[in-house]
């Protein structure tokens, strides 16, 4: 039974953190950032795919030399991925991580 006690205490602690108002606020803040970003990125990605399938003439239109709209929009996928990643990293450093760290310390958890 002594092996069950530490596991039970850890489970109780986990449930306490998960049910706390601070954790709920942190989860809500995370979701309000991540879900809209994910939807926006997926919409942009699927627009590119749909244009590639259904608007081949447009995607093949040359803009400058051999550079087409398809190439520009395709490279835009990479640029937008890096931009979103950098935006998330800054947001997390500024808004999310300090609150998560404060919650971990308050709940007696380990910090980085």
Automatic annotation (TrEMBL):
Keywords: Membrane, Transmembrane, Transmembrane helix. The chain crosses the membrane at residues 33-55, 67-89. Pfam families: DUF485. The keyword Membrane applies. The keyword Transmembrane applies. PANTHER family: INTEGRAL MEMBRANE PROTEIN-RELATED, MEMBRANE PROTEIN. This is DUF485 domain-containing protein. It comes from Intrasporangium calvum.
